[in-house]
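Extended Data, record SpoIIE family protein phosphatase
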Amino acid sequence: MANVVSQGAQERGTRTTRAEGALKAIAADQESPERLRRVLEQALVFAGAAFAAVYAPAQDGELLCLMESAGVPRTLYGLRDSYPRAGRSPVAAAHRGGRPVSLGPAELAADAQARRVPSGDFFLTALPVRGDGGCLLAVSERPGGFTADDLRCLELVSDAVAFTAPAAPAEAGDLPPNAFSLAMDSGRVRVGDDLLDLFGLDPVEFDGRVETLLSLTVPEDLPSLMSVVEADHMSIGDRELEFRVLQPTGPPKWLRLRGRLLPGGEGRPARLVGTVVDVSTLRSDVTDVARVQRLAAALATAVTVRDVGKAVVAALRRPLRADRIALAELESERLVVTVLDPPEPEAWPELWRSEWRTEWPDAPVRAMPTLAAALREGRARIWPAGSPLERALAEVGPGGLAVLPLPAGNRMAGACLIGWDTPHDFGTDERALLTACAGLAGQALVRARAFDAEHELVGMLQRQLLPRSLPRLPGAVAVARYLPSTAGLELGGDWYDVIPLPDNHVALVIGDVQGHSAGAATLMGQMRTALRAYAVEGHPPDVVVAHANRLLVDMESDLFATCCYVDVDLEEGAAWCVRAGHLPPVLRHPDGRTEIAEAEGGPPLGVVARADFPMSPLRLPPGILIALATDGLVETPDSDIDEAMDHLAEQLAAAAPTDLGLVADALLGNAPRSDDVALLLMRYDGMDLRPLRESWTVWRVPQAVGHARRFARRTLRSWGVTAEYDAVLLVVSELVTNALVHTDGKVRMDLTLVNNRLRVAIADASPRSPVRPTSIGWEATGGRGILLVEALSATWGTLPVSGGKQVWAELVLGR
């Protein structure tokens, strides 16, 4: 017992130490505009808070206003953006009293300042910030609220807020020379003298209207600037952008605006405060000729098609101030995109997102006839804002679209799409720049294709052998990545798979076939198919892997394969892991802690015919992340595999598991790429609605059908089903009778209820599925059972189960 207590104290001390270290690192980063938000995020990580915020005194001293927040939306807890300092709110009480104030669900329900949320009870704690810096407010949804250790971490966060919170905005007459303060309701702006000099205005003649300043900006930059000065007053936070202002002579001047939108509270307008500085010296005055020369130099060293795409994006997007650029290869009437900027799917049209693949997106040319025509003509085409284009293209560039066909010999190798969100005027110089860049890119594609034609074939073959998309999982999200090696042009044998199984189970599979050759890739496809087939048949994980091992041995191949198979029960949050010479899974817990699963392993597949593959249990609390990878992600010739796995765990701990795609991309970005790489991630969130299940073993006795009916009736009553007994019992009778009459061995009945859908499943030892008769005469004595089941159920079918089968029917019930 003493050891347990000591271990718990050590873990609590470690948590506090980690919090102190994280907060010190944030405080040392003086240049980061997100310091305050990052400090608040530590309350979510180390104190388990669902929401954290800082309230600071307003200039008039009457209100405590929201400065920054992190976590779930504050509206879920009924929290406001300001509170009177003299009021009864927990924020005001903690600020006035200089001591923490904690409220539980009962107090919050009775407090007029807070509203109960429909999602359930929560606990609220407010801590004063030293130096009249306001108040730290934290919310916990965990039973019992914040523990003593959590409160200690919150105190550390409160101390850090005192050093990182931004200073209150200066009064109008005390503005720094390059600062401004804009009232969001009236558009009246107070500015420093240096700021007016940047705009070329006389302080005496300036009328104090923000419209006067906006009229001096370059028209193309006006929409982005308006999005800041007309922002929603509820969008509290930092703002930063660069824009140009017109000069009496010479080119426009580049300025950088950094501001913060602050709430005004009751009866006071929200304000945008910040600074404007000259950044023209940071902008290189590069001519279009120089840009073309730089692009030619970059393309001369581009090896692959992706290298060509990256060089084109680097040469065009910034000079053209484009919002998105895509470079795509033309393969069998489809545009397979190799480079996207920006890379996030949300930045691209809905059609493109619907076609999003595991590695790169692609889009059908037939869905974009305008693009198809441009590719046939082989010359650059430009469409200004408002041009009648098909939706898939119009959403790429609502403010203007340029399409550059990329010639490669006597055919078109692809296209480059450049889009703008705001109306864009295409000048003569821009058109010439686009045409020159298209010609250079096309020539570079010819050289790149000559160099990596076999490498492209490798990637195409690998994509065909791997799943095109991953299934949607109840209570979980999975993503996968595959990258071929860049060290050579041989085929790889890495693979992954996500296999949905009955009863809300899912199998996560990752593997690697020895060597790099066409034989390795072929064997990879065979092993993936075999594992999927054995899993769908209903075998337990160790049997699935053992069958695949015996199959590979019987194939008498000179190659072997490694594999990791994880069967996850999405209802219970548990899993069984089987390893065959492969790397173990890496688990990232909800609190950021990572561990390498202690899963006992067996030999690689295809080595020993009668090998044992033990199963190791895994507990999966909601929020856990499972990472399965091949050795190409971590292993290098000069590194130890254990150290490499520890490094992978550290990378996973530093990642935010909210977006698994970003996590996967970050992990792949550090891969050595001397070998092909497969990566499979799954975040288990827990099922919101768990099915009700009951099972019954049907004994072969004369009263077997009656027993099954009585069991079904008792089960439905215990579940609260009060109607439609007759239909359910008739389906049970027919399915059980068919199993007893036409099969031998054990018979099992499973009942599952989800919402109002009841699933009746009868499993037996015969692999032969029932056949629906095409016609039945009046004199026939059988064959009507399946017709009755079909008539009474919404749907029915069969599936293999461990050498036998399961006949199931689903009925929609009124409860």
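Summary. Residues 52 and 138 are 4 Å apart (CA to CA).
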